[in-house]
Design a protein that fits this description.
The protein is 0% helix and 66% strand. The protein is an all-beta fold. The protein has two domains: 94 residues, Lipocalin (Beta Barrel), CATH 2.40.128.720; 86 residues, no CATH class.
């Protein structure tokens, strides 16, 4: 992913490329998604335009809007899918005492997605928890002449609830920069995983890499 910022340090555009684990085809990766960020006169983010390129050659454009209170604090964001422009597909509410955000997705009257993120030191995640309702995976039989074969399908009329709870124990240096995160996660109700993230910085304080199960590396180019 390549992210562009303006002179004030505001994110103005990001380009996400399709990645391949095949070294021979990795150089031929294509643009998968672009995001454009819009701000108001007070330099507050008010809209993200999310354009996605699909493998069949089609495109979709989703939009996210951000709302603020009289104190200038972010209170809500709503994401509208191109296929469902009349109502938000996702809605996030922001709270400050304690500092957290809760994202929900509705299908008719049922909340099929409800997850909360709790923060510390202004914006670092310390806990992520909630649930999602997903179609059950079932087996069916397909008969073609004398041949019978099994296939799997998702039953949209039979949903099951999956709970998730992830706790992060973060440590910081004397500058307030995060240096490690010990993560304990329970997902799909009873599956568990633990891992550790370590953060490295350039001498000027910019994040260089986040190393863990799948490492991330950051490079910066400055233009006049």
């Amino acid at each position: 992913m390549i992210t562009y910022l303006d002179r004030a340090g505001l994110k103005i555009r990001s380009i996400i490329y399709s990645a391949s684990y095949n070294g021979k085809t990795r150089k031929n990766k294509r643009i998968e998604r672009t995001k454009n960020f819009k701000y108001d006169s007070n330099m507050r983010l008010v809209q993200i335009i999310d354009s996605t390129a699909h493998f069949d050659g089609s495109f979709s454009v989703d939009k996210t809007f951000f709302f603020y209170n009289s104190l200038g604090r972010l209170t809500k964001s709503q994401k509208f899918k191109e296929k469902f422009p009349e109502s938000p597909n996702y809605e996030t509410l922001y709270y400050y005492k304690p500092f957290k955000s809760t994202t929900t997705q509705r299908e008719d009257t049922l909340i099929v997605y409800n997850k909360t993120t709790e923060y510390e030191n202004d914006f670092y995640t310390k806990r992520f928890y909630g649930y999602v309702w997903e179609p059950k995976l079932k087996e069916g039989l397909m008969i073609q002449g004398q041949d019978t074969s099994k296939y799997q399908y998702s039953d949209q009329k039979d949903l099951q609830k999956f709970n998730e709870n992830m706790v992060l124990e973060n440590t910081y240096d004397s500058k307030g920069q995060i240096i490690t995160s010990d993560i304990n996660s329970v997902f799909m109700n009873d599956r568990t995983i633990t891992h550790k993230l370590t953060y490295y910085y350039y001498s000027n304080g910019l994040l260089e890499s986040v190393r863990g199960y799948i490492p991330e590396f950051f490079e910066y180019d400055f233009h006049k």
